[in-house]
Amino acid sequence: MIEQFKIIAQNASDEKFNETISRGILRLSDNQINTVSFVFWLCYLAETDLNDVVKGSWQKVSSNSSDILKDKALEILVKKMYNGKKDKKIDFNNLEYFIDKIKVYEMAVGKNKSVEMLWIINGIRNDLSHNRINELQYKKESLFLRETKNKLLIDYFQAFKK
Fold first, then answer.
1. 148 with 142: CB under 8 angstroms?
2. Residue 142 phi, psi dihedral angles, 5° rounding
C-alpha cells in the first residue's frame, strides 16, 4: 500500500495529492470536503483578524507605557483570563492560541456580538478538530447547507463592521 501511495503521490497534481487524504483515506464526500474547507478558512479569517486587532492594540498600549506598568497590566490580564492563575505565561505580542486571543479581546471590549461570534466560531472549530464533521452547524442549522454558510459569514462580517 505504501509503495502504491509513493507512485501515486509522485505523479499527482497538488490537488490530487491533497485528495489522497480527504477522498482516499478518509472517504469524505464532496459536501463534507467543501464544508471542512469553508470552516477552516472562516476560522483562519477570524483568527487572523483577531490577531491583528489584539496585537496592534497591545503594541499601541505597551509603546506608551513604562515597563513596570506593562508588567502590572500583564499580571492583571493573565489573572483575570485564567481565574487567578499567576504561573500562566502569555506573550501579548504573539498570542499563540485562538482562545487566548478571544479572552484578551473580550476583556478589552466586554461581552458583545463580536465576542459572541468568536466563541461560536471557536466552538465550530473545536467540532471540526474533534472529528464531528457531520454535526457542524450554526444556529442549529447544518453547515452542509449553503444558506447556513452564507448566514454565518454575513453574521461574522456584521459582528465586526464597527
1. yes
2. -60, 135
% pLDDT > 90, the chain: 46
| Cell 470552516 belongs to residue | 39
Q: What is the pLDDT of residue 63?
A: 63
Task: Find out whether 104 and 131 touch, Cβ atoms under 8 Å.
Answer: no
Predicted confidence at residue 136, as pLDDT, reads 96
3-state secondary structure the chain: CHHHHHHHHHHCCHHHHHHHHHHHHCCCCHHHHHHHHHHHHHHHHHHHHHHHHHHHHHHHHHHCCCHHHHHHHHHHHHHHHCCCCCCCCCCCCCCCCHHHHHHHHHHHHCCCHHHHHHHHHHHHHHHHHCCCHHHCEECCEECCCHHHHHHHHHHHHHHCCC
Only one residue has cell 483515506, namely 25
Q: Is the pLDDT of residue 45 over 90?
A: yes
Query: Closest Cα partner for 155 from 120, 129, 125, 122?
Result: 120
Express each pLDDT in 53-92 by its tens digit. Answer: 887 666 665 566 566 555 666 666 666 666 655 566 666 6
